[in-house]
What we know:
Elements: H1 2-12, H2 16-35, H3 42-60, E1 63-67, E2 74-78, H4 79-92, H5 103-116, H6 123-129, E3 138-143, E4 152-157, H7 164-169
Antiparallel strand pairs: 1-2, 3-4
Helix pairs in contact: 1-2
Amino acid sequence: MNLIIETERAIKLLDNKSQNAFRILASRKLKQIYNSNSNINATQKRQLHIVNKLKKKLLTGNAMLAQADKGRTTVIIYKEQYTNKIHNFLTENNIQPLHKNPINKDRKHIQEILQQNNLIFNNRQVKYLLQKNPTPPTLNAQLKLHKPNIPIRPVVNNKNVPTYKTAKKTE
């Protein structure tokens, strides 16, 4: 990971026109280094083999890894059970699906508001505050192992919603 960071630092020192070309060359070389098994010792090879066997078993068993809400515990759960838990959570809390995606409309509205407030935000800030490719928030579920029936703790990722950067800036 340090090699990637140091490579990017070196590339940023170059002029802007040649940075992307060097990024492409560096990424190819880094992939070669990553894919070569000559740098891996025997313990790492064994660990990699075990991880690959676990992945294969999870796929064939229709299972997945999920995170518990307390501690740093990882749980193996069947995909169907996980999906049912999320579905039950959504129905119990009367969460209804939207019939139309409001993301593009919201992005345009935010852009208009930011441009109207040109005394507060300059053009460079407006460009930064607008999400390039906004998406709806995603729901991830962490399992509450310490509770009966193992309910879920919903974790919503809002980093790609249109208002994320604006909300961070105005905190």
